[in-house]
Protein 1
Amino acid sequence: MPRHDRDEPVPRQPQPPRAAAHRDRAVGHREGAAGAYARDAGGRDVAGRGRGEARGRGAIRRTVPADGSRLGRADHRAPRGHPRRRGRRGGGGAVRFDGRVAVVTGAAAGFGLAVSTRLTAEGAKVVMVDRAAEQLEKAAAGLAGALPVVADVSVESEVDGYVAKAVEAHGKIDLFFNNAGIEGRMAPMTELAVEDFDRVWAVNARGVFMGLRAVLKVMKQHKSGAIVNTASMAAIRGAATFSPYVAAKHAVAGLTRCAALEGAPFGIRVNAVAPGHIDTRMARDLTAQINPDDPDGVFERTSASVPLGRYGTAEEVANLAVWLLSEEASYVSGATHLIDGALNA
């Protein structure tokens, strides 16, 4: 291959055939797969592109020494202004969401409170939504700058209302944790009233849909955003005596895929988390429904059924949700992500 970085070829010492073969493979790997590196006299990369590719924003930049002795260290950082570099600060400060506006539903406890706490700690302005007014006020009081909004996610006007209040207060919505949900009544289908089904569906499916619809309208105006819906491992399996909840969580997984496709042209990502057995108030309520006389025994047996041998925590679910909301997950969209201690492996 002709050399372009100096006028005179540098003579090479004879090498054994085996060493030469290794050298040729290495050169082919560098120059063929990684790209042809044309350099000027100062050793600066002036091409930096593979076969048939034009150098553009986001391409890997390499600095190659003028003597051609070795390839320089690749600089894999995104270009200035790329979304992966926004919201970061040097010096080790944890400010992934500095200046971002987040809306979190079901924020008074459980996953919603854990995510609100993490987002606040990392620089976001959080609008906390819940229908439990007193509990919400206490939760918001512990988070700097949090805005509590009392709303029932099953009521269309109240969904539109919490979105409007977020925009009125902050002018935009960057992040949405669409989380509010209820467990509903556990019973065989033959013993459930239609009202039992409708109650769970109204919160866990219609509420998620209405939240997506309202927030997507705002995000599309700014052509960016990240959304995480709370599904469940019930979104990928069945559960006897739990049909309303299972049906609604399957709907959340489907809505997540649809919203991801609709949002993608506007730079909006949509994912879902699917928790397994997590130690929250809802989980404790379910153990009491299963066996009112021995809820602790149900809890212990359930823990033993998990390959990791325990219930998860709300903070562990928040770790996943916050990562999905961050720009570290900038190419992740349209998926429902299990967090279940390998229970469904």
Protein 2
Amino acid sequence: MDRIQMSHMVSVLIDHDVIARRSSDPYTFYDLGDSYCSNPFWSSCPHRMACAGCDFNIPKASARAQALESKASIGHYLEAVPLTADERAIVEGDLEKLDGLIRKLDDVPTLDGRTPSQIEAKETLK
């Protein structure tokens, strides 16, 4: 799918509070489904759909389950499929990006307002 086709499928959200405060924080967010992109030049982004490792990527809380599932799938893939050294390096690079995404998601509040880090900390105290 090319950039023009993809741009028709993305919703743009504007945070008017940031504009009213005259803050330098991002105010335009592109809804990518499982995350938001805060890159003002989204349509010309070189990462295009490799968002997990991008600094402009703001994951939604719902992305955590998908990221954990993908991490498990990649782990199984690495065990089951014979790969060349180059192929293995690429897959392991993707795994590192997923780990970074999961770490980002540790601070994104869940539906009850607590972050996964807070939930896990409470569970370890029991």
Protein 3
Amino acid sequence: MEKKNCYIYTRVSTSTQVEGYSLDAQLESLRKYADYRDLEIKGEYCDAGVSGGSIVGRHAFQNMIADIVEQKDNIAFVLVFKLSRFGRNSADVLKYMQLLIDYDIDLISVNESIDSSTQSGKMMLTIMSAVAEIEKSS
């Protein structure tokens, strides 16, 4: 059986997180998950020291989206550590979730065990994107 392909996206917003364990911890967790699910990692995209409030300045995220639109690697999944790493603006999260749906790609938030391939996962992603936006503004 052929392995399904995935991208990994990681992000930290502060220099403290960049210098600490967060990026490495995210990558390690996502790589282990991909291995567990027998997924082939076709790309790792990392935005270090960048806010998730907008996609402006998130060059790795923008590159990942461009690769998805170009259908560069025939991926089936995008893996993130937490939904807040994907974004902290509900409108952006939902916009890019729709783009993933349009390309038949599922988003998996590994730490939160949320998978957009299920109806309950789609509902949780919508709710969690609103929570992430509220946390950002607090």
Protein 4
Amino acid sequence: MIKHKNILPVIVFSLIAFTLSPGCRSLAFLKGDEPEIVVKETFDKSSPIAVLNFQKESTSPTVDLGRLAAEKFTDAMFLKLGLNTIDRSRVNESMRYLGINSPESLSLDDIQKLGLRLKAGYLLLGRVKNLTGEDYLSEDCNKNLTISFRLVSVLNGNVVALGSYSSKYEGDAAVKIDEMVGDIMEKMKSGSEEEKADSTNTGSN
């Protein structure tokens, strides 16, 4: 259930240590934590959203997980939630035009210039952190992927939504990102439906 609050809490995830066999068969039952998402009531769902390339912390030499996550979010928010997302090629072109290289350190002036050029109401900023066994344990199959994101208002730079999702996995990180973005969209969709139901019940009382 998505929580709607006026003050966004700091979301903290605790990493739990697992003892794994060399074959990593014990990972089969590990689904991972559910997405934690907070959305303010001031979020205007009709306003266009520009998704910027996610910052990435990854040892993968072949796949740009930050760009992949941004593409998956753009498509999923449009297809699953019916939100108005801006074409990624326009977003990338506008960032190059304005000389914006690091979405992580955007000033309010940068946010407003980019939003104005794209005619966007919000910018979605995020980070992908992919840790393999080589990074923090002895087994190569011990992998943990974390996706965090925040939705920022172009008008004033305020954060109107915040989310994080961390999960252990086997196999390919790109496939796991696709799965996790799907889980995030389902959580947001179910939260919106519950919100509508609550509003209907309140109005009928």
